[in-house]
Amino acid sequence: MKIALLGYGRMGKTIEELAIKRGHEICYKTSTAIDEEALKEADVAIDFSVPNAAFTNITMCFKLNIPVVSGTTGWLDNYDKAIEICHKSNGSFIYASNFSIGVNLFFKLNKTLAHLMANQQDYAVALKEIHHTKKLDAPSGTAITLAEHIIDATDNTKWHLNNQDSKDHTNSIGITAERTPDVPGTHTISYSSKIDTIEITHTAHTREGFALGAIIAAEWLKDKTGVFTMNDVLDSII
Ligand SMILES: NC(=O)C1=CN([C@@H]2O[C@H](COP(=O)(O)OP(=O)(O)OC[C@H]3O[C@@H](n4cnc5c(N)ncnc54)[C@H](OP(=O)(O)O)[C@@H]3O)[C@@H](O)[C@H]2O)C=CC1
Ligand SMILES: O=C(O)C1=N[C@H](C(=O)O)C[C@H](O)C1
């Protein structure tokens, strides 16, 4: 498979290494605006760029009819617009806030725990994410996905970033975002009462899990048309 890497930073480089080991070719890589002629050569594009470039990169792939997998976080205000363009141009697209298989299993665990805790009024839920100091967005995309899944199962109606504002936080899940050098990504959900705390944590030891999941998603998407999620990919491989 010929892969174009849109964004050649920490993730782009890790994907390149693993993709070559899986027998793929990196036919194009960029950390700036796309060269359309070069991108046209690709069977699939993988976008791990920056929040303000993701929408342009993704919609360029739709225009050129290249299936695209995106893991870039912090651009989701434009997600619905991207989906509309994808459908109109008969494109192929998967976005995930986290492509790691382990995190996607952790998403399922989080949903199950949220359902169990839904009627336990003595417990307060909280979310914490820790990432490296180079991360541009906070909270992480993964933390937002985890919060959204808890909101779907409980009385909580929104989330907020702790220490950022003093608005009304009734029925809102507080997310603490900590930045520590070199941490690939750690997410914890805790339910605390006066008596005890129930806590689940996913700790990424390296970026390989994110990269491998994105490549598996790209292999899966290559010959399909439509908008998919990582759940669609996992349902077919687990
Ligand atoms: N979904 C998932 O599983 C995961 C998602 N992520 C997300 O992926 C994104 C990238 O993470 P990471 O690799 O660590 O970040 P990096 O900063 O290491 O890489 C981003 C790269 O994108 C480049 N870039 C800037 N503008 C453009 C453009 N217009 N087109 C293409 N590339 C551009 C940057 O170049 P320059 O440095 O010159 O600006 C940089 O090389 C982040 O949003 C992060 O949150 C990360 C890990 C897992
Ligand atoms: O920026 C990162 O590094 C990561 N970003 C993603 C996110 O925002 O959730 C996924 C992973 O946690 C690493």
Automatic annotation (TrEMBL):
Pathway: Amino-acid biosynthesis; L-lysine biosynthesis via DAP pathway; (S)-tetrahydrodipicolinate from L-aspartate: step 4/4
Alphabetized UniProt keyword annotations: Amino-acid biosynthesis, Cytoplasm, Diaminopimelate biosynthesis, Lysine biosynthesis, NAD, NADP, Oxidoreductase
Species assigned in the record: Croceibacter atlanticus (strain ATCC BAA-628 / JCM 21780 / CIP 108009 / IAM 15332 / KCTC 12090 / HTCC2559)
Subunit: Homotetramer.
Active site (record annotation): 131, 135
The protein's name: 4-hydroxy-tetrahydrodipicolinate reductase
Chain ranges of the Dihydrodipicolinate reductase C-terminal domain: 102-234
Catalytic activity: (S)-2,3,4,5-tetrahydrodipicolinate + NADP(+) + H2O = (2S,4S)-4-hydroxy-2,3,4,5-tetrahydrodipicolinate + NADPH + H(+); (S)-2,3,4,5-tetrahydrodipicolinate + NAD(+) + H2O = (2S,4S)-4-hydroxy-2,3,4,5-tetrahydrodipicolinate + NADH + H(+)
Matching InterPro entries: DapB_C, DapB_N, DHDPR_bac, NAD(P)-bd_dom_sf
Positions annotated to bind NAD(+): 36, 71-73, 96-99
Gene Ontology biological-process annotations: diaminopimelate biosynthetic process; lysine biosynthetic process via diaminopimelate
